[in-house]
Amino acid sequence: MINTLVFGKNGQLGRSLAACSAQFPETTVQFLDRRACDLSKPAKITALIDLYRPDVIINAAAYTAVDQAENEPDLAHKINCDAVQTMAERAAGLSIPLIHVSTDYVFDGQAEKPYRETYTVAPLGVYGATKLAGEEAVRAISDKHLILRTSWVYSPFGKNFVKTMLRLLSEKTEIGVVDDQQGCPTSALDLATAILRILPDVTRGDFTQFGTYHLVSDTQMTWCAFTREIQAKATKLLGKEWSGAACEIKAATSAQFPTVAQRPAYSVMSTEKFMTHFGFGLPQFDRSLSAVLQKLAGGA
Ligand SMILES: NC(=O)c1ccc[n+]([C@@H]2O[C@H](COP(=O)([O-])OP(=O)(O)OC[C@H]3O[C@@H](n4cnc5c(N)ncnc54)[C@H](OP(=O)(O)O)[C@@H]3O)[C@@H](O)[C@H]2O)c1
């Protein structure tokens, strides 16, 4: 049995790990929520890791409010860096692997081809900067780490772009959606499945492929194109009578939707390194989006 401890029980990734864990009977997964361990007060982290004595730690928790982070840099730093540093220290002390999830927002979005893991980081805002600081702490402290950078996460759970767009499409006759930011929409269910799938490898004593990896879906698009995919697939699933089927989707610029924090214009990441080392990539975007929409239609 692989005894796994997850921080971030109620987030998209945490709930996806819970939903997918039954497919991995060789793994037992224990989850900690904010009540059990408030990451803004890292003192408890070490005690809880010692209590659970896991074979591997997954950090699925983060301060993810990208705009709010601009006004709460200290809190974002505590959760995205200080708490992660404490996890890394205890993981290193116990000589167990730490799987830490990070973000495309460590990049500035100026690249013209998919970002590789070695590309220069240059976060545009507080969220990205604090996530990068967390990565750096993990790399400095724990030899046995996997940092998995992902992007544009959606799922049947919590707040996310797919759920927001389904609501807007069904409420409005016309919506404008940003068409000048490119990224890879990634299902948290796929991420969770991939993480659980690599645990037997990662927890083997002779595993040597620790490091930083990009892990995103195989398809790049803009938010506007993503919305059109959501509409097309939801209409196929729910029928033309679905109230969102007729909503007109108009391409907009980022300037038309100013946000407190600047987003990278291009955050497509290459997953070649992950695929080479682990021998698989995430499922096709089409299948993944359909699976999430089906779960939402079924009342997930
Ligand atoms: N969402 C995206 O589009 C995206 C894109 C790129 C990378 N990522 C990364 O992917 C990972 C998973 O993201 P996600 O979308 O699953 O995030 P999420 O849905 O926002 O969930 C974040 C989790 O962190 C927990 N958390 C926040 N502050 C906490 C605190 N002070 N103490 C304890 N727990 C706290 C939340 O607890 P509560 O439920 O109690 O609030 C929640 O369980 C994160 O590392 C994120 O940076 C996400």
Helix content: 25-40%
Q: Please report the first level of CATH classification, the CATH class of the domain at 2-160 and 187-218 and 268-283.
A: Alpha Beta
What class do helices, strands and sheet pairing give? alpha/beta
Q: Unreliable runs, pLDDT <50, ≥5 residues?
A: none
Query: How would you describe the oligomerization state of the chains in this entry?
Result: single chain
Mean pLDDT: 97
> What's the end-to-end separation, in Å?
29 Å
Tell me the CATH architecture of the domain at 2-160 and 187-218 and 268-283: 3-Layer(aba) Sandwich
How many runs of DSSP E, i.e. beta strands? 12
Could you walk me through the main structural features you see in this protein, from its secondary elements to its overall organization?
- This protein has helices at about 10-20, 45-50, 75-95, 125-140, 160-170, 190-200, 225-240, 270-280, 285-295, and strands spanning about 1-5, 25-30, 55-60, 100-105, 145-150, 155, 175-180, 180-185, 185, 210-215, 220, 250.
- The chain is globular.
- Helix 1 links the parallel strand 1 and strand 2.
- Helix 2 packs parallel to helix 3 and helix 7 (about 225-240) packs across helix 9.
- The model has no long low-confidence stretch (mean pLDDT about 95).
- The chain is α/β, with parallel strands linked by helices and about 300 residues long.
- It has a domain at about 1-160 and about 185-220 and about 270-285: Rossmann fold.
- It contains nine helices and twelve strands.
- The site of NADP nicotinamide-adenine-dinucleotide phosphate has 29 residues, from helix 1 and strand 4.
